[in-house]
Amino acid sequence: MKTPKLAIAMGYIDDDLVSGAVEYKPSLVKLVWFRYVAAVACLCLVLLGAIKITISLFPKSNTNTPVYGVLGEVVAIKDDGRYDVRITGEDQNFAKGDIVTINYDYVSNESGNRALKTGDIIAITYSTYEKTGTTYQITPGQIDIVQTSSD
Questions:
Q1: CA nearest 138: which of 122, 127, 146, 148?
Q2: Worst-scoring range by mean pLDDT, 42-46, 71-75, 110-114?
Q3: CA–CA separation, 96 vs 88, rounded Å?
Q4: 3-state secondary structure the chain
Q5: Within a 10 A sphere around the Cβ of 79, how many other Cβ atoms?
Q6: How many CB atoms lie within 10 A of CB 30?
Q7: How many C-beta atoms surround the C-beta of residue 122 within 10 A?
Q8: How many CA atoms, within 13 angstroms, populate the side-chain half-sphere of residue 78?
Q9: Is the model more confident about 115 or about 108?
Q10: How far apart, in whole angstroms, are the C-alpha atoms of residue 127 and residue 139?
Q11: Domain 68-147 falls in which CATH fold?
Q12: Residue 110 confidence class, pLDDT cut points 50, 70, 90
């Protein structure tokens, strides 16, 4: 029933109530911009993920990283697979007689035998090193056996 007919059917209803009922329209505030904010946030996440994946798949090679080389003699073999090496040839980072520690995992030679013996003369190619107490920790790029010990 329409409002005027309803008013007649019920008897008397105040005109203010009838006119208020006719004019009232609930206001729907549509927040359309929420959709756009959510879409932009999703696109940002996708873009950042794509950039992160691209960087991890194709890392930039730093051509400015210096590479150094030095000769040393194995003086001690540790139980954890590391070697103490006394530097026998000077370079700009080490003096003769300095003790450096290297990791077994980087040792290689032509025969495929990776174990070093005390007294072996090795060539160490490295780009970074760290001083720990009185010794240096080298992260070598490659280690080659120059001369094996006479043992």
A1: 127
A2: 110-114
A3: 5
A4: CCHHHHHHHHCCCCHHHHHHHHHCCCCCCCCCHHHHHHHHHHHHHHHHHHHHHHHHHCCCCCCCCCCEEEEEEEEEECCCCEEEEEECCCCCCCCCCCEEEEEHHHEECCCCCCCCCCCCEEEEEEEEEEEECCEEEEEEEEEEEEECCCC
A5: 5
A6: 7
A7: 23
A8: 11
A9: 115
A10: 7
A11: OB fold (Dihydrolipoamide Acetyltransferase, E2P) (2.40.50)
A12: low
Q: Tens digit of pLDDT for each residue in 21-49?
A: 666 566 666 777 888 999 999 999 999 99
> Where are the domains positioned within the chain?
3-57, 68-147
Indicate whether 55 pLDDT > 90.
Answer: no
In this prediction the pTM is 0.48
119 Cβ neighbours under 8 A, 6+ residues apart: 73, 74, 148, 149, 150, 151
